[in-house]
Fold this sequence. Notes:
Strand order of the largest sheet: 5-6-9-4-10
Number of helices: 14
CATH superfamily of the largest domain: P-loop containing nucleotide triphosphate hydrolases
Structural class: alpha/beta
Low-confidence stretches: none
CATH topology of the largest domain: Rossmann fold
Order of helices and strands: EEEHEHEHHEHEEEHHEHEHHEHHHH
CATH class of the largest domain: Alpha Beta
Number of strands: 12
Shape: elongated
Distance between the termini: 54 Å
CATH architecture of the largest domain: 3-Layer(aba) Sandwich
Number of domains: 3
Strand content: 5-15%
Amino acid sequence: MLSVTADPRGHEVQQFGRLEAASPAMRRVLTVLERLAPTELTVTLIGETGTGKDVLAHTLHDHSSRAAAPFVVFDCGAVAANLAESELFGHERGAFTGAHSAYSGAFERADGGTLFLDEVGELPIDLQPRLLRALENRRVRRVGGNQYRPVDLRVVAATNRDLKSLVAAGRFREDLYFRLAAAVVAVPPLRDRAEDLPLLTKRLIEDLGRPGVSVASGCYEALAVHAWPGNVRELKNTLACALAFVDEGGVLEPDQLQLVAPADDESAVERLPLGGQPLERIERAAIRQTMSYTRGNKVLAAQALGIAVSTLYEKLKRYRIGT
């Protein structure tokens, strides 16, 4: 059930299961998921790689009537094309070379629960008709078998591809697209939900087994400036690396975050409250933070700032940074 609280800054925070959101974009997603969870609708999550679509899918399952049954993941992009049919629908003994015993595919293993079709846009085109029939008829036939087996499950799909474009290009069946598009939820990238960074950082630090570590306020400023092309997955990897330098019960400091914001990332900078600040103060802060990110490496810092190394040395001396 969706609950609403407030964070220490007074911002409204919505919570659905373990998911928390302070950003308007993600709060809308949680509201939609809370409504869809108890239904039997097929839900398709669309968003960039690393946005946490798998976590959202699992949350849908956990808050459905099927929560006590299996949650089975089938990654359409990680299975070789010649094995995809067997992995999805199963096979009988002797169906092909190497099939020494019968095998239950993802559909059968998910019976009673939820089947999560991750990266469904990568599913081979020749396998898509069989998937469509299985979704519509709720029964599957193993490779090499004659018997149809009924399955009772809910399907949640996810993709980072534009399925409409794939349909137009003839690489994704239109009828399958409409079958999966019963309820489409767009998951925002991390750069569009900077308000969620403190919540995500705290949760990810706990997930990484370091709940006793606190976070210096300067870290959130550094995290907010970064573009996060890898989204939440990149944030988790960044924190995992940084925590290696923090003692148990210690404080995560900005200089432990190995981040260098791309020079052409203007959208994140535009969101900072820079209006009315003297340019000298802004430049000093930018140089100090960049030197922290690069752990004092002046060549990398100069590259990130878009200036010559000699110019950086002059500014370091002028602003008395590192002296």
